[in-house]
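Sample intake sheet
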Amino acid sequence: MLFNSYEFIFLFLPLALGGFFFFCHVGIRSLVTGWLILISLIFYAYWNPRFLLLLLLSIAVNWLIGEVLVRLRAKQPDAQSMTSAIRAVLFLGIAFNLGLIGYFKYINFFIDTVNSLGATLGKINGLVLPLGISFYTFEQISYLVGVVIGKGQSYGLPRFLLFVTFFPHLIAGPILSAGELIPQFRSLNYRFNARSLALGFTVFTIGLFKKTVLADSVAGYATPIFEAADHGQVISFFLSWQAAIAYTLQIYFDFSGYSDMAIGLARLFNIKLPINFFSPYKAISISDFWRRWHISLSRFLRNYLYIPLGGSRQGQIRCYLNLLITMLLGGLWHGANWTFLLWGGLHGIYLCIDRGWQQFLKHRNWKAPSDRLSRILAQALTFLAVVISWVLFRSETLEGAKRILHGMTGLDGLILPEGYAKRWQMLTRFGVEFDTIDNFGSIQGVAFILSLLIAVFLLPNVYEFMKGEPVALDVYQHLDNKASPWWGWKPKLLYAVLTGILFCMGVGFCSSRSEFLYFQF
């Protein structure tokens, strides 16, 4: 069930909230927990009921393994060491989780790769990727590791079940730790809260607007061009850049919209999720970008992959190697395709360059320029690097990515629609040609893309807009301690009206709804 669908907004959500507040009024916490579990399972089963059994199997196995680890850890007096039994059980738990995701997500990719080397293995036909498996798998791995290192504890099966299945974050994150969510499932939060409803509805509405009005609209300027490139069509300079920037904006508003909607939905139920997205295109370096984009995934990769590999503790060469491995696997997590692997590798190279530059400045005892012009140039360079990487991420084939990137260099010609020939005839002296072009966005399309770019770089994000309110968990310290700005959100009629307008616009565009991009990961 999509957040941006009529059945979710006008049927499922009112029913879920109505039952939640009814059982809160009854005052029996177990009934509230049971209701949240029930609606979350219905939410997941709506997509494909048969994969509900897989989800429940995964939860049951991980909970049992967690209970075994808790008991083994309790018998271990030294909290800094692990017995062979603990290691074996943890290995079993991680192997089970990676085995599930490996089979459903990567088995055919592995078969294709082996076959490309001369083998003749048969692919598994009809294999469907279970929705959300990448997210709930990582969450449960983090739970098991947390128990072993002393940052987790024993939870009853109902609370653990709700932790994994709580529908606002089940499908596409954020990737949570049990300690962030489970303590919130207590009687203090199980009560009616009008301010929490107002906050949640406002954040949800902003996310809905981003997804349906902005992301889905700008997709029309990118999707046909990427599809044409994947099917062998040569893409000219202007079309290549239109596609690259349009997709850069599409995935920004799509994922930002989902993150806002997830946080807003949880807030309706008096639950706070952590910030997962914080104006990443305003980043001044690639490392800064990854502190702002998919924050919970970055945290997971750092804590459970980069640091266990050795992090930066074993010399510079090993540090660079760890960065590359981490980002390659991070790219592969997004999808079983060489384009994702290369995207991750490219970001690994970016991070190595960024770290090398920082080490160079440190060695020379220099400080990076911090004036406004330097920051703007750093933002522009980072944004350009990210745009180039998104071409790999979006393309279905390596050849398609190559055609887009080749076109962005101008080597495939500078072509404009022939309808502009009279007005811009002087451009021919600079090598520009005029011809019939499919998929060109027109002047209005270019203006739309430029307006979205301006909004991305100049407007505050939803957390800055609602700075004075407890919208999300304060896990990531992005906001300073200054007072909320004068234009910040307040429970006043003006903002209620503006929220209503955005909601009507967002709902109006739901008629042409599409899945969130991160659903496929």
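Comment: The longest helix spans residues 84-116. The chain has a mean pLDDT of 89.
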